[in-house]
Amino acid sequence: MFRTFTLIAALWLVVATPPAQAQTLFRPVAIVNDSAITGFDLAQRAQILVALGFSSASPDALRAEALDQLVEDRLKVQAGKRIGVTPNPELVEAGVENIARQSNLSANEFRALMGSQGVTDQALEDLVVSDIVWLQVVRARFRGRIEPGEAEIDAEIAEGQRRTAFDYRIQEIGLPLNDGGRTEAQTRALAEELTRSLNSGGDFEAAVNQYSRAPSAASGGIVGWITTERMPPDLLLALNELQIGQVSRPLPVAGGISLIRLLDKRAAAGSAPVTEVSREAARDRLVSQRSQRLAEGMLQELRRDALIEIR
Hints:
Elements: H1 7-15, E1 28-32, E2 35-38, H2 39-51, H3 59-82, H4 89-102, H5 107-116, H6 121-146, H7 150-163, E3 166-176, H8 184-198, H9 204-211, E4 222-226, H10 233-240, E5 251-253, E6 256-267, H11 276-305, E7 308-310
Antiparallel strand pairs: 1-2, 1-7, 3-4, 3-6, 5-6
Helix pairs in contact: 1-2, 2-3, 3-6, 4-5, 4-6, 6-11, 7-11
């Protein structure tokens, strides 16, 4: 779900905040070691955040989030340069495709949509480059600690087969974070109240008709049967917790909150045979999980040691 937020508005939040120090478009708003973040950089990242569903009642909060992301991006790229890590065009394009896929778009469709909202290709690539570089930096530093053994890969494959043993038939309510005059906080409170009332016998179809803005609302919220092959991990975990007829806890999605009702489940088709490809995928999952845990501590170290000047 994309939200409209014009580039003019994004630029206004940059030049108008803080009010005592107006910024020209390409004047630095921050320096991270020897790398400048300009007002244009900040406006572009703010535009991307809003398009991807970031919601805030305050332009100051949007500005702060965009600036914090850009500071971290600079630190990650600088860490990569120190060990000679630079992303190639193929990896950059794969990063854009991954973001686009989360919105059910192709990379070209995603670029076109962002371009229509004033976002440059360079801003999109900057968004993905830092994470591509950072992954390689973390793996280079912690290689001995993140590489799983064969027994751990076997266990991960077995757990994955257990998690994906079923297909699920579901019904949903999609709540935009800001809809019909509600604030984000009011939407979250509504989602919690709906979960309680629907699990106590409330009418799910009536709630769909009244509240849901998902495309499935036209069919009473019925999504139908879904497989686990391309299911987001949070949704799979939530479904595994439910009995038939129960409604999930509020699940965050881009730009909103989703409530899922489990209508039925059935045994999935036979588990795919274990191949070198599936073993490599299991290994990659384990490496990614361990890398994320170690990366947070490393990023805090970089922040602590960096010279960061906010202007």
